[in-house]
Amino acid sequence: ISGRQGGNFAPLAIQGTTLHGITYTSPVASAQVKSSLLLAGMYADSPTTVIEPVVSRDHTERLLSFLGAPIQTQGTAVSIQPCERLHPAHLKIPGDISSAAFFIVAALLVPHSEIVVRSVGVNPTRTGCIDILRAMGGSIDLINERRECGEPVADLVVRSSNLTATTISGDVIPRAIDELPVIAIAAACAQGTTVIRDARELRVKESDRIATMTRELKKCGVAVEERDDGMIITGSDRLRGAVCDSHGDHRVAMSLAVAGLCADGDMVIKDCSCIQTSFPEFLQTLNQLKQ
Fold first, then answer.
1. 141: helix, strand or coil
2. Over the stretch 226-264, which tens digit does the pLDDT of each residue have?
3. What is the value of pTM for the model shown?
4. Cross-strand pairs, 171
5. Cα→Cα distances 59→62, 135, 265, Å
6. Is the dihedral of CA 122, 125, 130, 135 positive or negative?
7. Which of the chain's termini has less CB crowding within 10 Å, N or C?
């Protein structure tokens, strides 16, 4: 691998060669790192094993197993044997729970709401947001549960609820890391003080989400304290409309849009073009729900 500064910076050039199986112990739970190594391991000359401190999302393992790859999971370790060929299949991709989370929180916060979000992936490595919001008193029911292409799928029925504060930490954090910005909005509207900790990974997302969410929530009149690995958020009955900034982060932008549904006065969010990164139809869908 060659590139700027001894191959440490892009653009990188990778010269193909024979791959050798390895056992890699990751210092963090990263589905991206794990998936990359497992995919490379399919073409190695011996088994490849990835060991994580806690189990990260396992979509890759489920899909490879569904397609016939020789893959095994034991605790936090995943191993794959060399594999030259996968079985062809028709795939049905479930809805993304990270995208659904914005509408789940919106329905919980806006009085007299009830929505059904259909065909959402409810992989247990991804449903931390549901567990957290239920712990806060949120009414979220899973119906029509089924399995598609190795993934658990369900329809979600969400009803407006009076939320109360909770502590969010430990093993649930990797299962909800991408949803924590919108969960912070739920906390800002809940009764009591919510503590988010063990979430320092938020600082190395598309923005420093601890700093950006703290800054933008304060503009909305929320009592929030920034911590190195999270936030302390004291809820309020109503948020205050404000001119906010997405900081170029799609999840911050969409979370602030949900906050706008609960604010007194107009909420202006600068630089919403970043929403195109993950959910181009978000604002259109949100407007349809408002009607």
1. strand
2. 999 999 999 998 899 999 999 999 999 999 999 999 999
3. 0.89
4. none
5. 5, 25, 41
6. positive
7. C
Task: Report the C-alpha gap between 283 and 272 in whole angstroms.
Answer: 10
CA–CA gap between residue 244 and residue 242 (Å, rounded)? 6
CA angle 142, 148, 154 (to 5 degrees): 10
- Summarised one tens digit per residue, pLDDT across range 265-280 is 999 999 999 999 999 9
Q: What single DSSP character describes residue 97?
A: H
Mean pLDDT of 211-234: 98
**Tens digits of per-residue pLDDT, 5-59?**
888 888 999 888 999 999 999 998 889 999 999 999 999 999 999 999 988 889 9
Catalytic residue, candidates 96, 131, 141, 178:
178
**Interatomic CA distance for residues 69 and 121, integer angstroms:** 22
For 290, the 3-state DSSP assignment is: helix
Domain ranges of the chain: 14-80, 97-290
Phi and psi torsions of 239, nearest 5°: -90, 165
Task: Using alpha carbons, select from 131, 246, 249 the residue that is nearest to residue 186.
Answer: 131
Q: Give CA–CA dist 272/168, Å, rounded.
A: 28
Known catalytic membership, residue 178: yes
Is the pLDDT at 3 greater than 90? The verdict is no
**Half-sphere exposure at residue 170, Cβ-oriented, CA atoms within 13 angstroms:** 3
Residue range 97-290, CATH number: 3.65.10.10
Question: Residue 278: exposed, middle, or buried by beta-carbon count in 10 A (0-12, 13-18, 19+)?
Answer: middle
Q: Are strands 263-264 and 243-245 parallel, antiparallel or unpaired?
A: unpaired
Other CB atoms within 10 Å distance of the CB of residue 212: 25
Enter the tokens of residue 87: 């079985």
Distance of CA 261 to the CA centre of its chain: 21
